[in-house]
């Protein structure tokens, strides 16, 4: 069989005649001397790794589930061509499972004094900051027999933002908001508390909306129309304590709460309300205040990106005190926390009156859809026991929610997929009732 390439070269070098065979070391070295010389030359001709200059460019932020491209520019200042294998190392959560080897390894050739670019495509699987580890380069000689290897630091950070999957509900919620805001053809009494305009009375209008002075000045009955009040303050409070770490499906409860908070913030900022964010467990984890309407959503997304559940019990008194300092005037406090009996009864209920006497309070909680499926299961003994346990859990949540409602709190309890639109509907209902 014919030999080609590097294999043929090694065979040729190993078969060069050297005269009389000496079974000792001298003969062995004499036979391998040409190969050793070739390897030494190959090593000497490999471009030096440490003199390479590496710079980065590309994406600095990406939504979870979307790809991010980071470009690495390799400059070769030496007088030898660079033939190299390159590994661009990132944390394991920067890739989809099983794709790291293909995505992080590159081959490149850089002529002397020139530069080349390689692009690493990241597909992060978790929120937060992903920072590059190191770049390992293996430089080969022209024969590929020997190589030089070294590592470089080329710092770069990609911030992985919340995916905001509930954005798809925003158009329908904005349509409802436009109806409340007086931009549709029909305006009715009771939708807000700010006077908007006058129009002619039509059968079915609330007689309390008739403006008798305006009616006296014209030949038809005039009614007042109303629109929701603007420039109201909304404080979204994310509980980042122990209960937010519980996983519902593939993600912790905190992620579903953040998604609901983003939809609410997008809707409220379009309604002309001011939205702030407080993330708290035993201390402040994130605080966003005083942002203009166009900057609210980017600021909240950026602040939420690095939030992680903390495995500590939330300090309800500290949370309440911090919320009151953050919202000194009457506001809507949206508390995204748990409806589990113990944390509510032992932590939140004793201090709840401090919030409700000054603010309107809306509590939203993530329900586990698996519990509902368990409650409906039947067929064998195990399924019946699971159904009984699920029914008891649901009964406790309903009882806790009823306790909160008796204290004047609006409660939203929904599964991760339904929490964001349900919270937006609750906000619109409060605006409709003039409670903001």
List the keywords.
single chain, alpha/beta, Immunoglobulin-like, Rossmann fold, 3 domains, six-stranded mixed β-sheet, four-stranded antiparallel β-sheet, 12 helices, 26% strand, elongated
Tell me what the structure shows.
The protein is α/β, with parallel strands linked by helices. It has helices at residues 5-14, 25-45, 100-104, 170-180, 212-216, 253-270, 293-305, 316-326, 341-356, 369-375, 381-406, 416-432, and strands at residues 53-58, 61-63, 68-75, 82-88, 105-110, 115-122, 128-131, 135-140, 147-152, 157-161, 194-200, 222-227, 233-239, 247-248, 251-252, 274-280, 284-288, 332-336, 360-366, 410-414. Mean pLDDT is 84; it is low at 1-5, 10-23 and 183-193. The chain has twelve helices and 20 strands. It is 37% helix and 26% strand. α6 runs parallel beside α12 and α8 (316-326) packs parallel to α9 (341-356). It folds into three domains: 47-159, Immunoglobulins (Immunoglobulin-like, Sandwich), CATH 2.60.40.10; 165-169 and 229-431, von Willebrand factor, type A domain (Rossmann fold); 190-226, no CATH class.
Brief characterization of the structure:
The chain is of the alpha/beta class and 436 residues long. It has twelve helices and 20 strands.
User: Helix amount, in percent?
Assistant: 25-40%
Alpha-carbon distance between the termini? 87 Å
List segments where confidence is low: pLDDT < 50 over at least 5 consecutive residues. Answer: 1-5, 10-23, 183-193
The strand count comes to 20
Shape descriptor reads: elongated
Secondary structure category: alpha/beta
Q: Domain count, please report it.
A: 3
CATH architecture of the largest domain: 3-Layer(aba) Sandwich
Instruction: Give, in spatial order, the strands making up the sheet with the most strands.
Output: 17-16-13-18-19-20
Task: Write down the CATH topology of the largest domain.
Answer: Rossmann fold
Query: Biggest sheet: strands, sense, closure?
Result: 6 strands, mixed
CATH superfamily (homologous) name of the largest domain: von Willebrand factor, type A domain
List the total number of helices.
Answer: 12
Compute the CA-based radius of gyration.
33 Å
Query: Which class of the largest domain in CATH terms?
Result: Alpha Beta
Q: Taking all residues together, what is the mean pLDDT? A: 84
Assess the beta-strand content as a share of residues.
25-35%
């Amino acid at each position: 069989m014919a030999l080609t390439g590097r294999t043929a070269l090694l065979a040729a070098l190993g078969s060069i005649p050297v005269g009389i065979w000496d079974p000792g070391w001298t003969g062995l070295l004499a036979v391998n001397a040409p190969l050793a010389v070739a390897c030494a030359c190959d090593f000497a001709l490999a471009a030096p790794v440490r003199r390479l200059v590496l710079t980065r460019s590309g994406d600095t932020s990406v939504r979870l589930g979307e790809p991010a491209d980071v470009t690495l520019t390799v400059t070769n200042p030496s007088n030898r061509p660079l033939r190299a294998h390159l590994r661009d190392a990132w944390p394991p959560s920067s890739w989809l499972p099983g794709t790291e080897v293909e995505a992080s390894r590159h081959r490149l050739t850089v002529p002397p004094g020139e530069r080349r670019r390689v692009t690493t495509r990241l597909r992060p699987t978790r929120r937060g900051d992903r920072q590059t580890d190191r770049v390992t380069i293996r430089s080969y000689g022209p024969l590929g027999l020997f190589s030089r290897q070294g590592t470089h630091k080329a710092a770069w950070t990609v911030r992985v933002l919340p995916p905001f999957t509930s954005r798809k509900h925003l158009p329908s919620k904005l349509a409802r908001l436009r109806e409340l805001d007086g931009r549709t053809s029909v305006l009715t009494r009771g939708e807000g508390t700010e006077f908007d305009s006058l129009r002619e009375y039509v059968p079915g209008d609330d007689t309390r909306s008739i403006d008798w002075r305006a009616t006296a000045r014209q030949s038809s009955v005039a009614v007042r129309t109303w629109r929701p009040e603007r420039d109201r303050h909304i404080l979204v409070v994310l509980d980042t304590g122990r209960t937010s770490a519980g996983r519902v499906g593939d993600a912790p409860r905190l992620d579903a709460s953040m998604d609901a908070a983003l939809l609410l913030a997008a809707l409220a900022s379009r309604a002309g309300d001011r939205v702030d964010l407080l993330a708290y467990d035993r201390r402040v984890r994130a605080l966003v205040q005083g942002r203009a309407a166009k900057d609210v959503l980017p600021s909240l997304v950026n602040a939420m990106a690095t939030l992680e559940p903390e495995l500590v019990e939330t300090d309800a008194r500290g949370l309440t005190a911090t919320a009151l300092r953050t919202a000194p005037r009457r506001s809507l406090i949206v508390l995204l926390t748990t409806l589990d009996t113990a944390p509510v009864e032992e932590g939140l209920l004793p201090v709840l009156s401090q919030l409700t006497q000054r603010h309107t309070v809306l509590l939203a909680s993530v329900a586990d859809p698996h519990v509902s499926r368990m409650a409906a299961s039947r067929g064998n003994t195990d399924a019946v026991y699971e159904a009984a346990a699920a029914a008891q859990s649901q009964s406790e949540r309903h009882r806790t929610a009823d306790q909160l409602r008796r204290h004047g709190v609006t409660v939203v309890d929904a599964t991760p997929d339904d929490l964001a639109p349900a919270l937006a509907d609750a906000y619109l209902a409060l605006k409709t009732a003039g409670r903001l």
